[in-house]
Specification:
The protein has 13 helices and 16 strands. By secondary structure, it is an alpha/beta fold.
Amino acid sequence: MNNRRNFLKKTSAAAGLMAFPMFQNNSFGHYSTEIVKGVTEKVYDSPRIKFAVIGMNHGHIYSQVEAVKKGGGQLVAYFAKEANLIADFAKRYPDAKLVKDEKEILDDKSINLVLSSAIASERAPLGIRVMKSGKDFMSDKPGITTLEQLAEVRKVQKATGRIYSIMYSERFENKATVKAGELVKAGAIGNVIQTIGLGPHRMNTKTRPEWFFDKDLFGGIITDIASHQFDQYLHFTNSTKAEVVASQIGNVHHPEFPKFEDFGDAMLRGNGGMGYIRVDWFTPDGLKTWGDGRLTILGTEGFIEIRKNIDLAGREGGSHLFLTDNKETKYFDCSAQVLPYGPQLVDDILNRTETAMTQEHCFLATELALKAQKNAQRISLNK
């Protein structure tokens, strides 16, 4: 009986200690909401550049096109091999011309920029041909699928002086992530220590093309979808040098696709901070969007958490940003946030500058992803 009485006393005391901070938390700071103020975006009376599309095997091509149009670009031509993809693209952009082959675009001196979301393994060879033709190139991610491709792209980019840009849409096309960049730059959370990037995706097996399941074509899960997280890690930690501490990959639940990978993660260390990345293809059908993508940015004076696509607490839409510092927790409504990537890239094409993204950042993010993929330990679950 005494042992039981002593046990109850100890567990009651422990429960009290656990409950105490829960009640006390309300005395530390408060919760508020800030609505990001929108600005009037510049509208151009005449086209600033002309651009074209070669390859449209992923739907990201539409956001790529819209970004450049926002910067004053005029879509004048496109080429693809697949009739169904051409038909869909033609409906969306009836004023652009369908050409008979890519050479017609590469030989057109009036075209400044070529966009592509071709099969992933074909993007770097295409980008090399584009740069050699005297044009700049913007690829969907991943823009490069092997270290050998990266070496050749770097060589040609240096020799030609052309821009090789990869549209990391989870940063460039997410309003909360753009706003987070402004807050971090302003010192809102002190010095950044670490980023944690989570990129879950839904399989949608029936709608995926065959190349989607072939590692030789999509590059592997870390090369592919984790490329976003490597970009964000470098951007928010301001790292110019970094190494992959550890990485692992596996196909733990889809044996019917032997060349596929459904899980991957990596740990990073750089001269500006640390990072952890996890990506997967396990978004359940019960979620209202394709993946609950998240980014946490830890600083010395606070942290930021971004819910990119959905807020499980019930707020509608995506681009949710929460900032906690030594005074309060604040929710940012980012619906009016301006996305600068497209206009900045067009500026860079005209002025030969690097305002949208430096070339070295683009290549380093790719290099880290490719090394993490190549050196990853293979995992399997015996269940």
